[in-house]
TrEMBL record:
Name this polypeptide is given: Integrase recombinase xerD-like
UniProt record, GO biological process: DNA integration; DNA recombination
Molecular-function annotations in GO: DNA binding
PANTHER family on file: PHAGE_INTEGRASE DOMAIN-CONTAINING PROTEIN (PTHR34605), TYR RECOMBINASE DOMAIN-CONTAINING PROTEIN (PTHR34605:SF6)
InterPro entries: DNA_brk_join_enz, Integrase-like_cat_sf, Integrase_catalytic, Phage_Integrase-like_Recomb
Taxonomy of the source species: Eukaryota, Metazoa, Cnidaria, Anthozoa, Octocorallia
Residues of the Tyr recombinase domain: 56-229
Length: 252
């Protein structure tokens, strides 16, 4: 299809430059292009699978009591999943952007991808008190990492004579992805099927599966439109019982 489109655009451009009407505007040509699109098809988008809540719980159980490097990635996974965060959001977080409360924590994003006016936004994450509690895990990570207020939340970690120590430089995307894949493969997942965006899409899909209203999901994830939010949803992973909730809640 790219070759066909290139040829059509080249012909149209040449005729336009010459001040002539392009034959590509003819109905027959348009029909042939549409037919070729249906026959050849378009290259499928290789979207990564969303992480599920059971996967995040398994990672916390396995690495929540591990060394600083393991704990950092487990925290990154849990935070990205529970707060619907992109890598861009996670990489820019500083200690001073986190505020702990009795029953939740608040995360301040100075700027999100779709925050055109740079107003910033707060995300609230509940403290369920379970072993998989994202707030409890982050508190543990902050204690072990000895973060100062202006420190990046996720940083490079080095081996020293005093054990693992965080450095000033932030954790890179490539290193975060590498360590993320190590952890998900350790719980039996195919690492090639998942990426760091699996955290955001996974949390979104899980919330939808539990029947959380779209407007709350949209607000939590910072989407400006329902269309952009739906791109992060994986409707096909919804279970049989989840799909039944629609008709069960109609009040009949």
């Amino acid at each position: 299809m790219p070759t066909i489109h290139s040829a059509v655009y080249a012909i149209a451009w040449a005729h336009k430059k010459a001040g002539k009407k392009s034959p590509t505007e003819h109905t027959l040509v348009k029909q042939m292009i549409e037919t070729s699109r249906r026959i050849v098809g378009l290259k499928p988008v290789n979207r990564k699978q969303p992480l599920e809540a059971k996967h995040v719980k398994a990672i916390i159980v396995k690495f929540g009591d591990g060394n600083l490097r393991q704990l950092q990635i487990a925290t990154l996974i849990t935070l990205g999943f529970s707060a619907f965060l992109r890598w861009d959001d996670l990489s820019k977080l500083e200690r001073q952007d986190i505020a702990m409360e009795n029953d939740h924590m608040k995360i301040f994003l100075v700027k999100r991808k779709n925050d055109q006016y740079r107003e910033g936004s707060w995300i609230l994450v509940a403290r369920p008190g379970k072993i998989s509690c994202p707030v409890k895990l982050l508190e543990k990570f902050l204690r072990m990492g000895k973060h100062r207020q202006q420190d990046k939340l996720f940083r490079k970690i080095s081996h020293t004579s005093n054990g693992m120590q965080p450095r000033k430089s932030p954790l890179s995307y490539s290193r975060a992805l590498e360590l993320f894949k190590i952890q998900i493969s350790s719980i039996g997942l195919n690492q090639s099927a998942y990426g760091l965006h699996s955290l955001r899409s996974g949390g979104t899909s899980e919330a939808a599966a539990w029947g959380i209203p779209d407007r709350l999901i949209q607000r939590h994830g910072g989407w400006r439109s329902e269309k952009s939010m739906n791109m992060s949803l994986k409707r096909h992973i919804l279970s049989h019982n989840t799909l039944l909730r629609v008709s069960q809640r109609l009040g009949l």
